[in-house]
Amino acid sequence: MESDGDEEAATTPATGGAPPAGRLKGRPELSVDDDMREMAKTAAWSVSSCKPGNGVASLRDDNLDTYWQSDGAQPHLVNIQFQKKVQLQLLVLYVDFKLDESYTPSKISVRAGDGFHNLKEIKTVELSKPVGWVHISLSGADPRETFIHTFMLQISVLSNHLNGRDTHIRQIKIYGPRLNHVPHQPFHFTSREFITYSTVR
Amino acid sequence: MQASAEGAAGSGGGSGGRAHAEAAQRTATDKREKVPSGATGHYLLGLIYRYTGRMEAAAEQFVQALTLDPLLWAAYEELCMLGVAEDANECFSEATALRLQKEHTSTSSLEKSNFVNENRFLSSNVSASLSDIIPKQIKQLHANTTAEVSGYPHVRTTALHVQNGAPSNLSQFDTPSPTISQTSCIAPPPLFRNTHAYQNTTGANAPSKPKVNAANLTLRRKYLDEAGLKKVSGRLFNQSSDSVPRRSARLSRDTTINSNSNIAMFGGNGADQLSGNRYHVVDEMWTDNVAATSSSASIVDGKFSEQDKAERVLSQDSKLAIGIRELLALLRTLGEGYRLSCSFKCQEALEVYRKLPEPQFNTGWVLCQVGKAYFELVNYLEADHFFELAHRLSPCTLEGMDIYSTVLYHLNEEMRLSYLAQELVSIDRLSPQAWCAVGNCFALRKDHETALKNFQRAVQLDSRVAYAHTLCGHEYSALEDYENSIKLYRCALQVDERHYNAWYGLGVVYLRQEKFEFAEHHFRRAFLINPCSSVLMCYLGMALHALKRSGDALEMMDKAIFADKKNPLPKYQKALILLGLQKYPEALDELERLKEIAPHESSMYALMGKIYKQINVLDKAVFCFGIALDLKPPAADVAIIKSAMEKVHLPDELMDDDDL
Q: InterPro entries, alphabetically (chain A) (predicted)?
């Protein structure tokens, strides 16, 4: 289930068991379904390396002018650790080839697991001169796999455009399903009649 | 001294000076048990006790205030909010009417005797033109003076009543002296509309009083405002109008005014009075000091016969009685209605409010109360209707508009809610209700962080509005920040222990955190406060079900279903419980009944599908799942339903509880 609009034909063969993805280009606006919400506000973010002044905080500051710049050997890693097991559906990155050129990531691998010791790759994407928000869906083909349940997510930048060494990423957001505002229900309520009576405010 | 004590109490009302304020107030009231301010003094003391959390002492003080002055509506209001008010019929009863009447008639007789006494204190600086002054005025005048001087307990209301009881042959009079009224101005549009009293006779009766020598006398107006006495010196007027300074009551008059340049103006009240009303011209003299007053009194006394006075007093008394009865009747209805709605006996409250005469019913305050009652009954459509009417009739009243915004939130009326919010902010940027409405707007669009910010503004503006705290708590809860939400709900409860929304909020948080006993306890508290809300009953049932007390849970659900037929939630929950108890046919029955009320609910079909699968009616199961998917549930549900559909044809597969 690709959630990205523009794609070129998939050419990359699968590597290491992860399904192939098309080359993503990025969209100018962030478009997320209403039934999803940002999940990583209370998560612990860390990076494998960074240049002073362009640290991990720039990934979460809602400012597209600031960016994280890595400063070490590839692959560059962004680790997101949640306080409890969460359901995740969508990963969105903001990258800009026009501004960053050789710093723009080209191959990204997304891994999930309980911790550093048992991360498993769930997705690999290739980017092709992306400008804007790149939406990477974390769902599988099966409807049962709409969400991944995980404690930790790791975004690994395997290579950059023009074979650059370090990478720039300007913003990362992670989305999951909204909480049902009536606790302990098997299903969400959809109709007006139910929703009106569903809570006391 | 009294004024200063009250001022001290008022200014010392902040958290720092409360003890000081209390001490000051207490000394003030101890020393002067009988002063008019006794009632308002007790009221103030009661407020202080309430703000510091000492509810029984507060209730005591309010009761005292009411005993001293039965017309102090604000004290009755506070008692209702504390939940300990006695029946309005008792409070504003016939006995009270008689008592009030007696006090005022006794006052008038006192005045009569005072006339005699003060004869001696005449000074001679009263001009002879005073001869035209009718004894009526003098009485009022005297009433004022007496009020000032002797501190007679009810002379102010007396003066008020005296004037209101003025006989209708007031062709040469007009409305009385500015009285110092005890009635608190917080009340709903009260009524001292003793229309008989102020009948205008024709303009032909326009008096042609000689101009009084303005140089000698100055006017004095005294009226009680909330903090204390304020003296305002007006101008002497002849052939001019006047109006009662009582802020809470407006005597309606339809007299004509004989134009005159010296129109007396009152402090704040005069302006609107003047523009609206026309007064019959009269001579009124107001003296600046006792001596002058007494002198005028004595002069008049000399001029008019006792007989005359007695006559007037008598007719005045009967008017007085009528006036008092009317007022008390109104207060009785309003009080009863308010007391019932504060104790959440909403249906009865509505019946009481409906007994009001039409012009009284169609006022902002009453309509807001009616709307609020419907809101507590979870009848949002009616509530919407009444609040809208209230808002249209009095667009600048912001009390109760926060509840209105919640009603619109529940009805999902985004546009109207945002319009209301903008309107309220433009009316008064510094009112907490406006920001509550704005916050509700954002909450409706699921932007919980902005909503939280707005609710925090509301809290900042007035931390004594419990609802603002509760709304903050709801937003924290939506953001899954349970610690903070618990904190905010507790703040709300600190302000008002009977705020059932906060109890409910706490219950929901504990339910999510799976602390089911706590959840049940809090829902039960909420339910005990507001026993007519079907949603509360439903949640209590859910908590009981989580505690595995299924019998109690089902009972609760049945109660909820009975309380409000239109509420689909208890039926749905009942079906869930029955499913848990594996009573599949009953569960299906319940859902079939639910279909009639809410035919387009995805979760209902999904649940039906699940039950059919359990009883192995597979084709129906798939059918139901199909409908559920068609109704566009959110992605999470789509996943569950789709996987359930796949599993339907594989009954051998081990199903985990997770999916279905």
A: APC10/Doc1, APC_su10/DOC_dom
| Chain A 28-47, residues with CB within 8 Å of chain B CB atoms | 33-37, 42
Q: What is the ipTM of this complex?
A: 0.80
pLDDT in tens, B198-250: 443 333 333 333 433 433 433 333 333 333 333 333 344 443 444 434 444 44
Interface of B with A in 434-493 (CB under 8 A): 440, 446, 471, 474, 478, 480
How many domains does chain A contain in total?
1
Measured distance CA(B375)–CA(B438) in Å, rounded = 19
Q: Coil, strand or helix: which one is B171?
A: coil
- Cβ distance A187 to B606 less than 8 Å, yes or no, reads yes
Give the Cα separation of B23 and B32 in Å (integer). 14
| B469 vs B339: CA distance, rounded Å | 24
Per residue in B41-90, pLDDT (tens digit) is: 888 888 888 888 888 889 988 888 888 888 888 888 888 888 887 887 77
Write out chain A residues lying below 8 Å of B568, CB-based: 193-194, 197
Chain A nearest-CA distance from B563, in A, is 13
CATH of the domain at A125: 2.60.120.260
Between A31-45, B115-129, B457-471, the lowest mean confidence (pLDDT) is in B115-129
- Identify whether A3 is part of a domain: no
User: If you measure CA to CA, which chain A residue comes closest to B475?
Assistant: A201
The answer as to whether A201 is a domain residue is: no
- CA–CA distance, B309 with B286 (Å, rounded to integer): 20
pLDDT value at position A17? 39
pTM score, two decimals? 0.70
Q: Grade residue A42 by pLDDT with cuts at 50, 70 and 90.
A: confident
Q: Largest Cα–Cα distance of chain B, in whole Å?
A: 115
Name residue B144's amino acid. N
- Is-contact B607 B644, C-beta < 8 A? no
Q: Is residue A138 part of a domain?
A: yes
How far is Cα B363 from Cα B190, in angstroms, rounded to an integer?
A: 11
In a domain, A34, yes or no: yes
Q: Cα separation of B377 and B379, whole Å?
A: 5
Angle between helices B568-580 and B550-563 (to 10 degrees): 160
- SS3 at position A101: helix
**pLDDT of B177 strictly over 60:** no
Q: Look at the block and give the residue holding tokens 């929950």.
A: B573
The 10s digit of each residue's pLDDT in B467-511 is: 999 999 999 999 889 999 999 999 999 998 899 999 999 999 999
Residue with tokens 């919400």: A37
| B372 φ/ψ sector (left φ>0, alpha ψ -120 to 50, else beta) | alpha
A7 touches chain B (CB under 8 A): no
Q: What residue of A is the nearest CA neighbor of B448? A: A37
Say which residues have a Cβ less than 8 Å from residue B181's Cβ, sequence separation at least 6.
B156, B157, B160, B223, B224, B245, B246, B247, B248, B249
Residue from the list A42, A184, A192 with its beta carbon closest to the beta carbon of B511: A184
**For the CA atoms of B171, B172, B174, B177, what is the dihedral angle to 10 degrees?**
-140
Work out the mean pLDDT of chain A and round it to a whole number. Answer: 85
Q: Is A192 exposed, middle or buried (0-12, 13-18, 19+ CB in 10 A)?
A: middle
**Where in the sequence is the domain holding A158, given as residue range(s)?**
8-196
Are A189 and B601 inside 8 Å of each other by CB?
Answer: yes
- Rounded to 5 degrees, φ, ψ at B247 are -70, -30
Tokens of B573: 């929950």
For residue B429, the one-letter residue type is: R
Closest residue on chain A to B469 (Cα): A201
